[in-house]
Design brief:
The chain is an alpha+beta fold. The chain has helices at about 25-40, 55-65, and strands at about 5, 10-15, 15-20, 45. The chain is globular.
Length: about 70
C-alpha cells in the first residue's frame, strides 16, 4: 500500500504543545521528509502533525514545488 509521513515536533505537557523550532530546524525537518519522499516511492502524502504549524507547511510546500511535486 501507499505510505503517509507526518512528523511532530515539540513537547506536550499539561494539554499544551510547546515548540521551540527555529526556521533552520523547520527546514531540516522538511528536507528530511523530502529525502524520504525521494527514497520511498510509495510515500504519497507528507505533512506535519502536532507542534508543526503553518510556517512548516509553507516551507514543505516550497520544497515540493522546487522538486516539481504536485501540492
Amino acid at each position: 500500500g501507499n505510505m503517509i509521513a507526518y512528523p511532530d515536533h515539540g513537547k506536550y505537557c499539561e494539554n499544551i504543545w510547546t515548540m521551540h523550532a527555529d526556521d533552520s530546524t523547520l527546514r531540516n525537518i522538511a528536507r528530511s521528509l523530502m529525502y524520504c519522499k525521494q527514497k520511498y516511492s510509495k510515500l504519497e502524502i507528507i505533512g506535519g502533525c502536532c507542534g508543526l504549524g503553518p510556517k512548516f507547511i509553507f516551507l514543505l510546500t516550497e520544497l515540493l514545488r522546487d522538486q516539481n511535486y504536485e501540492t
